[in-house]
Amino acid sequence: MNHSHRRKKLSPRQRQIRTRKYTKIGILILIILAVTCIGLKLLNPGWISRKYTEISNQQVDASEPDINVQLLTVNPYSRPGTETDRITGIVVHYTANPGSTAMDNRNYFESLKDTHETKVSSNFVIGLEGEIVQCVPTWEVAYASNSRNNDTVSIECCHPDESGKFTDATYRSMVQLCAWLCLKFDLDENDVIRHYDVTGKNCPKYFVENEEAFTQFREDIRNAIKNTPS
């Protein structure tokens, strides 16, 4: 019988050396993994945790638009005060209320604490002149995007007529606000979606019925992010 392929029996000393070798390799691998995780955590705090995190740096500050902060009163119908998870998307809506202003929509959300008519709100509303009103902090849930309320920021956009097409001023603010939020939450233009993409609802109407316009919108966000000084 040929025993040439039988393993050579190691001496106790050789087994000890081999064990030490494998232990050192294992420790080295663990150190590399730990350093990698720490590095990723520092560069992107939300990478490991599902908790809400923001990025704060010069590029984020440089891209921030003018925002009129008019927070809603905490109440069960429009601002429940519930903390969000890590933000993984931005959802764009239209008001479906032609000619209304950003403050009109903000005040309607506020009125729900008294009327109890429904549960609805948004983190931001962009008006016909491009004004941006913040209704709910980005670290709190707004009632806008159904199953994505917990991990997205919502933006309601005003429009002058039934077509749902946005004014140039509204559109420019939409691009700027989305670019800033992308930088703030380490997202890109592909993370900007429509209400339609969550529920199939015809919202925002113009971007649902004109797919090429939504594609261009994302491209404009990408360019805005790219052109923001770091």
**Structural classification:** alpha/beta
Give a quick account of the main beta sheet: strands, pairing sense, barrel closure: 6 strands, mixed
Q: If strands are numbered along the chain, what order do they take across the biggest sheet?
A: 1-4-3-5-2-6
As a whole number of angstroms, the C-alpha radius of gyration is 26 Å
Number of strands: 6
Regions with little confidence, pLDDT below 50 for 5+ residues: none
Number of helices: 7
Structure description:
This protein is an alpha/beta fold and 230 residues long. It contains 7 helices and 6 strands; from the N terminus they run ααββαβββαβααα. It has helices spanning 12-43, 58-63, 102-115, 168-184, 195-199, 205-209, 211-226, and strands at residues 68-69, 89-94, 124-126, 132-134, 152-157, 192-194. Strands 1-4-3-5-2-6 form a 6-stranded mixed sheet, sandwiched between helices. The chain is elongated. It starts with 11 loop residues before the first helix and ends with a helix. The model has no long low-confidence stretch (mean pLDDT 92).
